[in-house]
# Entry
Amino acid sequence: MGKSLAGVLHPDGKIEVAGGKIPDHPVRVVVTILDEPTEAGEDLSGLGDYLDQLTDYEDRLARGEVRWT
# Structure
C-alpha cells in the first residue's frame, strides 16, 4: 500500500517533504499538483485536510469499499 506525504515540488525537480520519513532508496511516486504555487517559507499546514482525505480514500480503496466503474 502507498504512503502519502505533503511537500513541495521545486522547478529544479527536487521535492521537499514536510514531515514523514523519506526512504533511503529510490521509490516510484505519484505527484498531485495543487492549484496554487507556494511561496518560499510558506506554511504547508493547510495540506493536512487533503492529506487526511487522501489517506482515508486509499484505506477504503484497499479494503474494497471503493469501486471504480
